[in-house]
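Re: your question from the hallway

Yes, I did run it. Sequences:
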Amino acid sequence: MGIENLILGFHIAITPFNLFMAVVGILLGTIIGVLPGLGGANGVAILLPVTFTMPPTSAIILLTSIYWGALFGGAITSILFNIPGEPWSVATTFDGYPMARQGQGGAALTAAFTSSFVGAFFSIVFITFFAPLLAQIALRFGPPEIFAIQFLTFSSFVGLGGGNPLKSLVSILIGFILATVGLDIVTGQLRLTFGITELMRGFDFIIAVIGLFGIGEILLSVEEGLTFRGTRTGMNLRVVLDTWKTLPRYWRTFVRSSFIGFWMGFKPGGATPASFMSYAFAKRFSKNADRFGKGDLEGVVAPETAAHAAGVAAILPMITLGIPGSPTAAVMLGGLIIWGLQPGPLLFKENPDFVWGLIASMYTGNIIGVLMVLAFVPLFAAILRIPFAILTPLIVVVCAIGSYAVHNSMLDIWYMLIFGVVGYVFKKLDYPLAPLVLALVLGDMAENALRQSLIMSQGSLAIFFNRPIAGVITAVAVFFFILPIITPWWRKLKGASAPTVQTSHN
Amino acid sequence: MRAAELVTASVLVFLGGVVLFDAVRLGFGWGPDGPRSGFFPFWLALIMVIVCGVILVQAALDNRGKSFVSREQLNSVLKVLWPATAAVALMHFVGLYVASALYMGFYMRWVGRHSWVAVVAIALGIPIGSFLVFEKWFLVPMPKGPLEQWLGY
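Structure:
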């Protein structure tokens, strides 16, 4: 069943208009990825209103292409400027920037883009085969299973996210609470509006994403004092070909990192830990581990492969379960709802052309992407040479336009500013932002699933444990929730104090 | 850092309390057709108040004297924040495009000390460009003021 569907998908993905959308998306996405303050999530959020009038398949191709572009763009700033444009690019700076300083920037960039492509390709092949299977299973899910999966999603932020687990929990709760503001569609009552009409509409997660990630990030980067000391790209066809010749040597790293990336990526917040984990593994298995951190090509290959594999894998739960694996996927999920599609397993039955068009476009988008970034690196790198006093107000204006366009409401621009300040404070105090956004997106769905489950069981929470699938998922989720409590205890028992790698959410 | 932690957690406890208050008003028990409207917010807010309470205690016991923000850092953050706020306020009266032009021009001259030629070129070019892209090409309307009205939009 897989192959003919995929061919159908390719027929949709390679129409001239959709290919054009992919090129535009990659171009915008790479620019967004290079610019500080504009990442994949808010880049997609800002451009979402533009897609309202497009056919859904073209719209999703545009948005996913922006996502691929942002993933590629993060590598450019990490290697040439030592500024990770995205959190999952941090590990790329460890060896990428030293290489660029030694005049090997071209080789590092070529390796980064090629690794990204390999990681992405690996994940797409996995999605092609697993997505229909997962959707088949998910079709039999009832409200208790859906709630259990959501529970698992959020438990993995608390248990595996790193940082203070209590703060991750608070971020999740804030997101859910913001989602309940406004009209309760089940009972028709107004919640948490306190008689203020403007609050009836509730909080739109797109505004939250633009504010928290866009404005918040700008405030953080001006605080650190933006100084771009870039190195030259040193990119030409010869360097590309020479680097390609050496890359097959690292095939073990490619395979290992792709697996790590895919495995981490389809769970939420996966790309950043995946890139660090993959870097650590590559270092441990490498014969010349002492060269890591001083400019080793393998140190660029490992995190980039994993980050991109994870970024692509985040699409899998979005199209099969209706649960996004990353903030960017969450924004796309919001897009699906706006375009009139129901995200989740039914998508495969009712909109096969959409799903398979999307999957096929992931192949074409990444091929176009890797060629475009290889060809135009100097151009993209030049963006960071735009003076800071132009870039900052420009990004603020772009964020304002994106916020206003969602509902044609001035109030949303004010919300954006407020979310920006909140994002700045939260980021400084290590309250993770990704779970907040995901909870805000999934709030209604989670609450409905919880309500329906409780109605089925007449108020007993046992329903999440005594159904086989829901029971297993809930048990794993509970385990993740108590993981931060048992880990220190376990360490004491073993008498070892292994250092933990602190990673932020992406 | 400690003061900022304490203030943030206290604000969250307060907001949690506000949510609890409204959830109790809505009813958080079992209604004729399942859980009442206040059910979900009630439990969310209750857990949040408890967890923030623990964070408060953690922060109070933590004596690492790292400051949240230095005076210079705060200065550069405010330098971005207040012109942006002023620009948004201005949008109510003159529309997004004119406000953006004034905001970009002001910021470039004040912070970047760019030459007047560059300031005028970019402060006019960017809003005009976005006007063409959004109003003409994508047909996404933005807030407009007297100037656009006078031009017939």
